[in-house]
Amino acid sequence: MTTYEKARSFIYRFARPIDLAVFKHAFEKGPAEDIITALCAYRNPDGGFGHAIEPDNFNPLSLPMGAWKATEYIREAGGLEPSHPIIKGILGYLDSGDGFDSEHNQWLNTVPSNNGAPCAIWWKYPESGSDFNYNPTAALAGFIVKYAEKGSALYCKGVRLVKEAADWFIRTEPLEQHVARCFITMDGDCLSAGEVPYDREALLNTLDVVVARSICLDPNKWHEYLPRPSAFIESRKSRFYRAELEDICVSECGFIKSSQNPDGSFYLPWNWCNDYKEWNVAEMWCKAIVGIDNLRFLREFDPR
Question: CB-based burial of residue 170 (10 Å sphere; 0-12 exposed, 13-18 middle, 19+ buried)?
Answer without folding.
Answer: middle
